[in-house]
Protein: Lrp/AsnC family transcriptional regulator, leucine-responsive regulatory protein
Amino acid sequence: MLDATDQQIIEELAKNSRITMKELGEKVHLSAPAAAARIAKLEDNHIIEGYSIRINQDNLGYPLHTFLTIFTKNTSHQPYLAFIQTKQQFVVNNYKISGQGCYLLECRFPSQADLNQFLNALNDYVNYNLSIVIDK
Structure:
């Protein structure tokens, strides 16, 4: 079970995973070595599994943000999954879900034309329900 200090460490790392151990220690009232030891323990216990960066997709030229609820046409999902592998430049996440649909596909596109081309090709494999993100 995590104590309050471990929770604080996780919150601070979520805000800025590049924080120095000295800065982190000051924020959670520990020495730098004690903060580093706590992080090592969280990693060893697989509480912290990795560190990542946030990318501004708009600035990369992918301003069109979509979610597609995917409905497979048959029990074999492999054709759809193989298609998605060929479109990784657009795919952010592909979640297998229960409830409405089989997958929730999150994508980013540089233009409406690219989205339309993707949807036309996607329709060969699955049916879908499209949602476009208006604001975050």
Observations:
- The chain has two domains: 4-44, 64-132.
- Strands lie at 64-72, 91-96, 103-109, 126-132.
